[in-house]
Amino acid sequence: MTNYLLSVVGIVLISTVLTNILPLGKTTSLIKNILRLCAYLAVLSPIFEFANNGLNNGGNFFENYFSETVINTDESYIEYCSSKSINETERLIENRLKEEYSIDSTVTLVVEKVNESADLKIEKIIVEINDISSEKQEEIKMDFKKEFSVDIEFTKGG
After folding, report:
1. Is 0.70 topped by the overall pTM?
2. Distances (CA, A) of 30 to 14, 34, 106
3. 64: number of CA atoms within 13 Å, CB side?
4. Closest CA relative to residue 141, chosen from 154, 130, 122, 123
5. In this predicted model, what pLDDT tens digit does every residue of 59-96 receive, in sequence order?
6. CA triplet 11, 13, 15: central angle to 5 degrees?
7. Dihedral sign (CA 135, 139, 144, 146)
8. Residue 40 — left, alpha, or beta (φ > 0 → left; ψ -120 to 50 → alpha)?
9. Are the CB atoms for 50 and 61 separated by under 8 Å?
10. Cβ-based neighbours of 61, under 8 Å, separated by 6 or more
């Protein structure tokens, strides 16, 4: 693109300089017409290039301009981001249990990939805790089930 712009600007500058230094006479109009023709050819050169590429590709003018690009995913990076997201979610749940229910716990998420894509679905939340009443467990289970549609399993911590 820069070459195209430089060629057009160069031809315009050269024709301007030549037009100003030419003496008046019969050859002046001939030289001006030749310079105009060069300027037109420089402006139209992308169209000629497009047509030439089409002829070289057996008449398929749009093959190089609308070709399909294949995107490859980096599975290891996706796995890394997913594990970071899971860890952060576990920490957020631990903080919520601590703030709302005054419970010190360790949370583990059981996740499942959805349709072989990078999307993850939380299947179950496992809360490891030393001592909690069954009434408190039921209250937490109901709250999380209502808000997140996820089952919570409580286990004894060691």
Report:
1. no
2. 16, 6, 89
3. 12
4. 154
5. 565 655 566 667 777 888 888 888 899 999 999 999 99
6. 65
7. positive
8. alpha
9. yes
10. 50, 51, 53, 54
Amino acid at 16: T
List, for residues 90-146, the tens digit of each pLDDT value: 999 999 989 988 888 899 998 888 776 667 888 888 989 888 888 888 888 888 888
E strands present in 13-157: 106-113, 120-129, 151-156
Query: By three-state DSSP, how is residue 76 classified?
Result: helix
**Two tokens, residue 105:** 């716990």
CA distance 21 to 15: 10
Token pair 């089952």 is at which residue? 151
Tokens representing residue 69 in the block: 């690009």
157: left (phi over 0), alpha (psi -120 to 50) or beta: beta
CA atoms of 86 and 108, how far apart (whole Å): 9
- Tell me which residue of 104, 157, 103 sits closest to 130, measured CA to CA: 157
Residue 144 neighbours by CB under 8 Å, 6+ apart:
125, 150, 152
Cα angle 70, 74, 80 (rounded to 5 degrees) comes to: 155
